[in-house]
Structure formats: C-alpha cells, structure tokens
Write the structure tokens for this entry.
Amino acid sequence: LQRYLRDSPTPALDYASGLSLQVALRFALLSAHDTVAQKDYEPVLPPMPDELPDDEEATRIVCLVKNKQPLGATIKRNEISGEIFVARVIHGGLADRSGDRIIEVNGFPVDGMEPEQVIQVQARSQGTIMFKVVPITERPVHNQTMLYVRAMADYSPQQDQTIPCADAGMSFRKGDVLEIVDQTDALWWQAKKLPSNTACAGLIPSANLLKRKQREVWWSQPYQPCQSIILCSMYWFACITAPSSRTFNFFSVGFRRSMRLCRRRFHSTIQPSCHTRCPSSCYSALNSPYEEVVRYQRHPQDAHRLIALLGPSGVGVNELRRRLIEINPNIFQGAVPYTTRAPKGYEESGREYYFTSRETFDNMVYNNRFVEYGEYKGNLYGTTVDSVREVLNSGKICVIDIEANAIQAVRTHELRAYIIYVKPPPLERLRETRQDSYITTNYYVNRPFKEEDFQEMEEASRKIESHYWQFFDHVLVNDELQDSCVQLLTAVRKAQDEPQWVPASWIRPTAES
Ligand SMILES: Nc1ncnc2c1ncn2[C@@H]1O[C@H](COP(=O)(O)OP(=O)(O)OP(=O)(O)O)[C@@H](O)[C@H]1O
C-alpha cells in the first residue's frame, strides 16, 4: 500500500469484476483489483477513546475486527473477585495474546459479569470489538518443542459437555496426525490437524483428560465381548495350516489360503495373556489416546520396512500379495513359516516351512518369537520375527499377511511395519468385480461368491475398521484387481522411499519398546 501511495497508479476501471463473472478465479482477482481501486481498505478501526487512563502501562485498548473466524479466545471469571480474564488464546487465532484481564468490551464494563453475558456483548458487536484489558506483566515463557501425535481415538467437541468452548474445539478421527501447538493447560491442549492449511489451532483434550473420558465411556457401556478385543487387541494369536492344494507358477512362500480359514475357525483357541506376551505395547495402546509420531524416511542403506497386508476374509489379501511377489520375486518375498507337522515328501525345511518339534515351537512361543501362531488339526503353525528378519536382511522387501490382532507384533522398532488395509469396495462393486472369482470357505475349497459372502465381508470390514483404523498406514480399496495391484505397488514404493509418520519410539527407542 505504501508503494501504491507513492506510485499512484490509476485503475483502469472502478468495477472490473463485471467483466468476467463466469471464471471464479479471475473474478476473485478482479474484485481484489476493485477493492484497491475503490480504496476500500477494511477494516476501519474506531477512533481511540478520548479518556485514556493516566497509567498507560496499566491498561491497553485492543481492537479486533470480527470476521467469519472465531475470535480465538476463551474467557473465564474469577469466582472470588468477579473479574473476567482471557482464559486461553487459541494459537494463530485473532486474539493471540494470553492471560489479560478484560475490564471493558465495547465500552461496557464487564467486571462481575458472567462469561456468557460477556459473550453476548461480543456477539452483538458489528465489525470491530474493542477490549480494554489490563495485561499481565509476567507472561509464562513457553519453551516447547514441536510435538506430533497420531490420534488413537475419535473426538467430537460438539458431543463433549466439558469443553470450555465447543466452537473453539477441533474434532478428529482415529489415525489423524495432529500437531500439538500448546500443552500449557493440563486439560485442554491446542492442536492442528495435518495436513493443515489453517493458521488457527483448535482445542483438544489433553492425553490425560482424553484417557479419563475414554475410561468413563468404557465403564458406562454395557459389556460387549468385542470390547475386550479392543482392550486386549494385542492378543496375538492365529491359526496357520498347511499350504493349500492350489499351485502357482513358481513356488512362493506363505500363500496359505487355509491359514486364514483356520484363523476364523480357531479364532478363540489361543489367547495368551497381555502381560506375558506384550506388556509394553498393550499398555501403551490402552493408556495413550495419542501416540507420539515423527516423520521418518528410510535411509537407502537401511533394511526395508516390512509390508503387512490385512483385511476381511475373501477381500483379496492373498491374491494381491501373490501378484505383488510375482511381479518381481527378486524384490518381494514372503516369510517362511514354522510348523510342527511332519514334512511331506516333496517339502524341504526352509523352503515351504521350517519343520520343528513341538517342544522347540513351545519354547519359541514362550520367548515371544512369533508374529502369529496357532494350532490346526493338532499341529502348530506360525510366522516368526526371525523369518521376517531373514528376508529383510537379504535386502528384499518382506510382504506378509496378518490378522488385525497381530498388528502390534509387527509395529516394532525393528520391523517398522507399514500396514496396508485391504478394504472391500461398495457392495454393488463387489458383486460386479467378483462375478468370476472363487472363494474358499470352511467347507468348500473353491466356490463362486454368494451374496452372504459379500455381506459378511462388509460386516467384518466394519469391525476391523472400528477397532484398528488408527494403525493403517494405507487403505487400499480392492475394486478392479489390476488397479489394486498398481496401487499396492505404489504404496509399497512410497513406504520404502518417502517420508512417513511413524511412532516416535521407533526412532528414539525407549526402555519399553
Ligand atoms: N479385485 C478383485 N476382483 C476380482 N476378484 C478378486 C479380486 N481380489 C481378489 N479376488 C478373488 O477373490 C478370491 C478371494 O481372494 P483371496 O483368496 O486373496 O482372499 P483373502 O483376502 O486372502 O481371503 P481368505 O483369507 O479367506 O483366503 C480369489 O479367488 C481372488 O482371486
């Protein structure tokens, strides 16, 4: 504006936006032009009051221009003195000053008023609001480092009776990455949802407060068996069985179609206690509604990240994994599972399976060596961390499929699993795309998909999503198979070569992790 005043250019027209009503962008540009042409420099601030207090340091006049943005501050009343204070100023909001005592709003003395009445005064004002405030002399120095977290729960300020101001609140869904910009208040933090293009932060419950809220909700709900699954989602168990009779063009490890069947059938056979199996991960998932995350980019010399695929039975997890490995078996590989069953004539230990005794297997279970394991027809089957490590150490990308309750076993500092959730497309697309496909069920090895298979898949995906969505690094809707393969390949490449949000404990390992 200073330069404009100096140069005094003459506008071509006073009303140029009429020239181009159809093109929104151009219209915006032209109306900006008109604003300058008409010298319409909002806001016009009201004149300063004549009677300024003698002690200039003691009070300040703060003038804010109202627009569609919230004011960005919450106020509170001191119950004893009746004085009104700015309780909290929202980071990046209009009123980015904190702790000041408000004595007047638009000329009305507000001492002794209820906060709601003060808000009424503000709400009535048009254009500008003038506050007379007594600034606090000693402002707390906030020496905060940047904190990023992944939300492990959903939150909606509109449904929270306890939030100081629902309009200043920020809703989030589990899995969202939040930048915490202010943690000075023990109960209400300020945060931005990433990726963010707003300067203004929103109020969210602090970790302790959200934890308390979750516990209250949990206690107030009637018992549902699936809740125990959420709470003990780290019970890692599954049943794995012999390779299916299906043969492929090349031998590929771990395409055990019946393994997933078996998991379904024997779902509840093995449930090791949380404390003996994975105390640290259980504890943190139960107690931290926010998981601290950092941006991580794999160094080209580091081992690849493990790729773990999961999804409801029949959605196509194995098909996608098989096709990915087929694309380039020199790059992608599955992990060789262990079993206690006797080898068949053509089988070689270390190729189809590692064959081992029951005693050794039990020992491995005891020593937490398995990502997943289970029993089928009297034999034990399982995938170990060592088998995964072997593939990763060979420089290849290890691709495995897991049940959702094995997620915590692979989300570790060492494996740095990238979790891809394979989601069914909408029902009508399932019907169309699976017309010529075959499903394997508990009773049939291969039969065409039926309507109830699709319904079951939908139902299962809803359950998986409601319990585990926060852990998914990528969601792949398996609609057209070819497209899904391309998407999978792209996601895997990104997982290895592009920066990703990962748990901070992977980068700064703690005693627990
Ligand atoms: N996008 C797709 N379009 C059409 N058919 C598909 C698609 N994805 C997978 N299929 C087919 O659906 C069937 C089930 O797939 P797949 O065996 O991979 O399921 P899964 O998720 O591993 O489940 P399960 O563990 O029960 O075997 C297979 O015949 C597969 O070829």
User: Anything to note?
Assistant: The domain at 228-507 is CATH 3.40.50.300 (Rossmann fold). The chain has four domains: 2-37, 60-134, 147-215, 228-507. The two ends are 56 Å apart (CA to CA).
